[in-house]
């Protein structure tokens, strides 16, 4: 599988060798994808890919021990050793790199260390290789989604009078981590009342009061992400809240039904947005969904009005229609696998608001 991935990548690029890098505060999902090592296992290293040799992991003495029959592994103690090894291993003039993860200074340092090489940005091609998920990848994402769904079902038991957004978010985070022993796919979002109108709200010290709560979270299982959003109501929801929830739920259903092999992602976005405009007076203000995998926002490019993505079998995406009004917002999100004729749903949101 790994050799096939590398072969596909070289087929998409016109480079002689590839040097992938992961940084402590900016890991590259391509590193575990092409090495087979756990996500986040190494945080400041190189993975060198050639057309014929086994991939080479270059680690420092500070890093965990690395083992792998399909890998070559070399350990360096000093920066000069690292530079010498890169010069020796990176054959040819044109070297492919994921420029998107480099800072200006770190990229200049790479150019200075290897002045005779010409670096080519292959970040787009790296993402493209992750468009279609293998069966093993799909099952990991499915597991992450099921764990997330299981934890979200426990929210009514976690809720208590006077709890803050931050406190509830922490309780959810602990449960997610206990299930997998891994980091989260992304920080938990808990947004109550007016805060639910901000799509990327950060949980605050605000005590949760009567009204709606939007909770967006995701477990990570063996490096792969789940991503679900559920809506809860403290007290009886208003007729308007119930009406908007029903419309958003129906919009999600339409998006899922349209998400089949060969469908246009942009056309699906436009049809769902048009439905929401007619039923609620509000169009989609962000994407209908995104790719899901080693990253929360993974390949492929999701449902956007200008997306050129044509859905392919075994692409994994989220479907998350939303409406944001003056006093509250409603977003419902599930994870799907694109298939022929009908998508495979990895999670199932309830048809009605969940009362607390």
UniProtKB/TrEMBL annotation:
It holds the Pfam family Peptidase_M24. Residues 139-339 form the Peptidase M24 domain. SUPFAM superfamilies: Creatinase/aminopeptidase, Creatinase/prolidase N-terminal domain. This is Aminopeptidase P family protein. Residues 29-132 form the Creatinase N-terminal domain. InterPro entries: Creatin/AminoP/Spt16_N, Creatinase/aminopeptidase-like, Creatinase_N, Pept_M24, Peptidase_M24B.
């Amino acid at each position: 599988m790994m050799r096939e991935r590398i072969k596909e990548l070289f087929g998409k690029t016109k480079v002689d060798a590839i040097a992938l890098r992961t940084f402590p505060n900016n890991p590259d999902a391509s590193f575990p994808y092409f090495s087979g090592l756990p996500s986040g296992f190494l945080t400041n290293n190189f993975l060198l890919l050639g057309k014929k040799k086994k991939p080479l992991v270059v680690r420092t003495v500070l890093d965990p021990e690395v083992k792998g029959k399909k890998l070559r592994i070399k350990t360096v103690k000093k920066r000069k050793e690292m530079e010498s090894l890169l010069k020796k291993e990176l054959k040819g003039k044109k070297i492919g790199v994921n420029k998107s993860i480099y800072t200006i200074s770190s990229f200049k340092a790479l150019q200075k260390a290897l002045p005779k090489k010409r670096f080519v940005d292959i970040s787009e091609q790296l993402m493209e290789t992750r468009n279609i998920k293998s069966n093993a990848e799909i099952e990991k994402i499915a597991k992450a989604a099921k764990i997330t769904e299981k934890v979200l079902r426990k929210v009514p038991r976690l809720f208590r009078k006077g709890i803050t957004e931050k406190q509830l978010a922490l309780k959810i985070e602990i449960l997610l981590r206990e299930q997998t022993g891994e980091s989260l796919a992304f920080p938990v979002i808990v947004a109550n009342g007016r805060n639910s109108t901000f799509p990327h709200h950060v949980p605050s010290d605000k005590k949760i009061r009567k009204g709606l709560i939007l909770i967006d979270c995701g477990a990570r299982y063996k490096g792969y992400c789940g991503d679900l959003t559920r809506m809860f109501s403290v007290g009886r929801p208003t007729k308007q809240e119930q009406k908007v929830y029903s419309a958003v739920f129906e919009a999600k259903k339409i998006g899922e039904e349209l998400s089949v092999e060969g469908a246009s992602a942009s056309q699906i976005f436009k049809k769902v947005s048009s439905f929401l405009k007619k039923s609620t007076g509000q169009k989609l203000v962000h994407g209908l969904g995104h790719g899901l995998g080693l990253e929360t926002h993974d390949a492929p490019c999701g449902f956007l009005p200008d997306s050129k993505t044509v859905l392919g079998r075994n692409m994994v995406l989220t479907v998350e229609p939303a409406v944001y009004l003056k006093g509250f917002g409603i977003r419902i999100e599930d994870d799907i696998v694109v298939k022929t004729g009908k998508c495979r749903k990895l999670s199932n949101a309830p048809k009605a608001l969940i009362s607390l």
